[in-house]
């Protein structure tokens, strides 16, 4: 939670300018441009733009931009159907070109969204897309994987990364119909063509790498069971997966004529084409199947049941020997749409079906599944007639004398090509309806039928009476239950009202008036926004409005339960709360100097906190935690100690806040098993086992002490890789005896008191031991900081239990370094003196 007041604009911009730009919502302020990286929590809404920019002229509402790649809402001009997608936008590099964009990846191609839809990058690290009715449309499912940020790379790859800059999720692993330069296609992945040039939904064509033999395979069908192209040219990786990289001049077995801004696309017609940006427009440079396939080899080149002639044109199958036409063209002006049966075949009328031989044609596909146990043509035909799903059959006889024949069934109608295969005898038969099926509704009044009908009518009346009586009884019972059963929200509200020591309960209207209709926004956290307000008595308050369900409700109840009945000078006081149906609000005392992170990470020397102030803040944080761990009726483990959750009043007194993740523990319990929660970088190593004690707060306190003394964040990606992690840097400096290098170099008072600052660093080391039993309790830490005790013991930090490389958490693999860099402080630190 961020509750603040007296913020200095210069300091804020100097420290957090990049995060500010990253968190911009869909804004067409091109003076700022669009970021390529954002951090949670942030959301974007698909709205009609107020400033019609050149992006909008191409139907794109940007969120992230990197070079010629744009990630955002991609909408159709003729409607509001939109996708969250990545497009190549060469116009951003070539101002003289027409506004032409090419979508190369999308998240929700089968579920387009409209205006009002929201894309949200949550504090938990999940990227979700919801429609305007708050229904989930798409998600990366990355909750619990310690996602730190999201970025669009210069290659057009959308990546969610963790605290170690390792990829947690990437769009390259989920291709749609395109590949871009630098992208791999790995066995197990598929390109799926669009249904048409105007329909984004998945069509019938797919392109992949066979996981068993490494062949490139182009297929058609709802289950991609019919192959029309095969070629070898993939490589193996260390996991024995086959893959191919789209480089500047090659992709698998295909060589290209041109490099530059380009992409490969599987078209809705089954062609795999290479496009490049040439002379201010997209041009097809190459058809990658051209060396293996001719125009009639594509399965639906003439639509269903159509016959493709090599000289050009599409026709329907000819009439049978009785001059009966079984097929008609769907559209004479557009013959490649195919043909349809005059009488549709049906499994219910299989006795009226027969096979129509189509002469001088062969099937366009070469890799139909065969029935090798059938060796003669009559058995092949009969097997198709006995199979309800069979729509056509192909029989090929290589050597009839030796029974070398193949029988192919087809369950999905395709195109055929004129001039049969001359290498061996080939016969093609289409299943057709041979006669008019009698209408089962006829002759219902015949004498033979009437008694049966009357009997059925009597049974129907009896059933109707029974069902009616049952329904009425159920309706009465339901109404009775509704009268005696309270709404779950009412039960929850009653529960909150009876918690021991519950603070003042406000109505929503009271808080709306107190905050002037929520007009003065102080900040925004993972679960909602915080607004400044004034009660009728004149007291200043900060109102936190929680937005959401599930975890948000749990956080709300946990906050009221935890700090509603406890009072300590170094804990933020919960003044009251509001729980009215969908409204969940928490009312705190107002802390005018905001959160600690805004002061210790500030580079403005005029606003920097001095040594004495920082030392006082460290003691006050320790006091607040000691009270939680030992001064309450129940032990409370905070579980999310970090500078953002330490607030400062007008006299820079520190108070611990935000108890949404806290855990109540019985005094008789020494350990507790709970789900992993907290902020990456501040979490103790024992979280890897999910068995924790209050010492996890001690570890987090040690991290915060280091940040206060060093004047920098625990993880700072702006620094060189070897210095990015503060705990690792601390270990290295300790080993080299270079303590003074860690003291906040932007603060003269800290530098002039460097000896005392280094002594305080030993406090951090004491708290950061890998074995939680060796860390001090917060009550002992308070006594030491107050000078009421000395400790001459040696502390061995050299051999904490090493965390595993990867940890299974809720079915997902997680890098242990994302939880914490387990400190390896050498025994040179003899402990606090």
Automatic annotation (TrEMBL):
Domain Protein kinase: start-end pairs: 516-785
EC code: 2.7.11.1
GO cellular component: membrane
Membrane topology: Single-pass type I membrane protein
Keyword Transport tagged: no
Keyword Hydrolase: no
InterPro entries per the UniProt record, alphabetical: Bulb-type_lectin_dom, Bulb-type_lectin_dom_sf, G-type_lectin_kinases/EP1-like, Kinase-like_dom_sf, Pan_app, Prot_kinase_dom, Protein_kinase_ATP_BS, Ser/Thr_kinase_AS
Signal peptide positions (record): 1-31
Reactions this protein catalyses: L-threonyl-[protein] + ATP = O-phospho-L-threonyl-[protein] + ADP + H(+); L-seryl-[protein] + ATP = O-phospho-L-seryl-[protein] + ADP + H(+)
SMART domains assigned to the protein according to its UniProt record, in alphabetical order: B_lectin, S_TKc
Chief localisation class: membrane
Domain Apple: 347-428
Domain called Bulb-type lectin: residue spans: 49-173
Protein location: Membrane
Sites where the protein binds ATP: 544
Broad enzyme group: transferase
Family designation: Belongs to the protein kinase superfamily. Ser/Thr protein kinase family.
UniProt-recorded name of the protein: Receptor-like serine/threonine-protein kinase
Organism: Rubroshorea leprosula
Organism phylogeny: Eukaryota, Viridiplantae, Streptophyta, Embryophyta, Tracheophyta
């Amino acid at each position: 939670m961020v509750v603040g007041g007296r913020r200095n604009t210069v300091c804020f911009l100097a420290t957090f300018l990049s995060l500010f730009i990253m968190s911009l919502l869909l804004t067409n302020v091109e003076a700022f441009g669009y970021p390529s990286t954002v951090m949670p929590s942030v959301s974007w809404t698909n709205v009609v733009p107020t400033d019609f920019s050149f992006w909008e002229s191409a139907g794109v509402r940007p969120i992230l931009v990197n070079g010629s790649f744009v990630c955002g809402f991609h909408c159709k001009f003729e409607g509001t159907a939109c996708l969250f997608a990545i497009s190549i936008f060469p116009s951003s590099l070539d101002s003289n070109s027409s506004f032409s964009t090419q979508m190369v990846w999308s998240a929700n191609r089968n579920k387009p969204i409209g205006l009002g839809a929201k894309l949200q990058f949550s504090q938990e690290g999940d990227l979700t897309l919801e429609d305007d009715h708050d229904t989930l449309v798409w998600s990366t499912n990355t909750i619990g994987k310690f996602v730190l940020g999201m970025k669009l790379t210069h290659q057009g790859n959308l990546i969610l990364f963790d605290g170690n800059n390792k990829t947690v999720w990437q769009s390259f692993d989920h291709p749609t119909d395109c590949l871009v330069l630098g992208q791999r296609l790995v066995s197990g992945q598929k390109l799926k063509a669009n249904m048409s040039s105007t329909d984004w939904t998945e069509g019938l064509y797919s392109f992949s790498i066979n996981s068993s033999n490494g062949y490139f395979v182009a297929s058609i069908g709802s289950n991609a069971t019919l192959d029309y192209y095969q070629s070898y040219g993939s490589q193996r990786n260390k996991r024995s997966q086959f893959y191919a990289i789209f480089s500047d001049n090659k992709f698998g077995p295909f060589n290209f004529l041109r490099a530059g801004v380009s992409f490969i696309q599987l078209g809705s017609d089954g062609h795999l084409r290479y496009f490049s940006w040439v002379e201010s427009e997209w041009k097809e440079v190459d058809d990658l199947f051209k060396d293996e396939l001719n125009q009639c080899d594509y399965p639906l080149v003439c639509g269903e049941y159509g016959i493709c002639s090599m000289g050009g044109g599409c026709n329907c199958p000819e009439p049978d020997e009785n001059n009966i036409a079984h097929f008609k063209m769907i559209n004479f002006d557009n013959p490649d749409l195919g043909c349809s049966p005059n009488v549709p075949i049906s499994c219910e009328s299989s006795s009226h079906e027969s096979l129509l031989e189509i002469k001088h044609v062969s099937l366009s596909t070469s890799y139909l599944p065969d029935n090798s146990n059938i060796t003669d043509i009559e058995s092949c035909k009969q097997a198709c007639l006995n199979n309800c799903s069979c729509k056509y059959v192909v029989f090929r006889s290589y050597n009839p004398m030796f029974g070398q024949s193949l029988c192919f069934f087809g369950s999905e109608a395709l195109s055929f090509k004129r001039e049969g295969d001359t290498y061996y005898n080939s016969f093609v038969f289409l299943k057709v309806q041979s006669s008019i099926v009698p209408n089962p509704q006829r002759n219902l009044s015949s004498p033979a039928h009437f008694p049966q009908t009357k009997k059925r009518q009597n049974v129907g009346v009896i059933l109707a009476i029974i069902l009616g009586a049952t329904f009425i009884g159920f309706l009465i019972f339901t109404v009775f239950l509704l009268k005696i059963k309270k709404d779950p929200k009412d039960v929850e509200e009653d529960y909150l009202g009876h918690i021991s020591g519950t603070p003042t309960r406000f109505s929503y209207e009271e808080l709306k008036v107190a905050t002037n209709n929520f007009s003065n926004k102080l900040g925004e956290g993972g679960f909602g926004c915080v607004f400044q307000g004034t009660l009728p008595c004149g007291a200043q308050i900060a109102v936190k409005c929680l937005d959401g369900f599930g975890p948000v409700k749990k956080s709300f109840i946990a906050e009221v339960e935890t700090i509603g009945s406890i009072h300590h000078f170094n804990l933020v006081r919960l003044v009251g709360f509001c729980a009215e149906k969908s409204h969940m609000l928490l009312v705190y005392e107002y802390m005018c100097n905001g959160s600690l992170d805004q002061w210790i990470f500030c580079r403005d020397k005029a606003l920097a906190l001095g040594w004495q102030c920082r030392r006082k803040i460290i003691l006050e944080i320790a006091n607040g935690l000691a009270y939680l761990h030992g001064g309450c009726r129940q032990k409370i483990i905070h579980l999310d100690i970090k500078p953002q959750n330490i607030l400062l009043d007008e006299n820079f007194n520190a108070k611990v806040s935000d108890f949404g993740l806290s855990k109540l523990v019985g005094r008789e319990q020494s350990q507790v098993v709970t789900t992993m929660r907290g902020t990456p970088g501040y979490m103790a190593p024992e979280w890897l086992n999910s068995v924790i004690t209050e010492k996890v707060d001690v570890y987090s306190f040690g991290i915060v002490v280091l940040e206060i003394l060093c004047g920098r964040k625990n993880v700072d990606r702006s620094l060189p890789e070897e210095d990015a992690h503060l705990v690792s840097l601390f270990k290295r400096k300790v080993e080299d005896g270079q303590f003074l290098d860690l003291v906040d170099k932007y603060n003269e008072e800290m530098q002039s008191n460097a000896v005392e600052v280094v002594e305080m660093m030993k406090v951090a080391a004491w708290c950061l031991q890998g074995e939680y039993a060796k860390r001090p309790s917060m009550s002992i830490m308070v006594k030491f900081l107050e000078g009421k005790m000395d400790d001459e013991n040696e502390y061995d930090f050299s051999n904490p239990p090493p965390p595993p490389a990867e940890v299974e958490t809720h079915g997902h693999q997680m890098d242990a370094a994302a939880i914490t860099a387990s400190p390896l402080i050498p025994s040179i630190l003899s402990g606090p003196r």
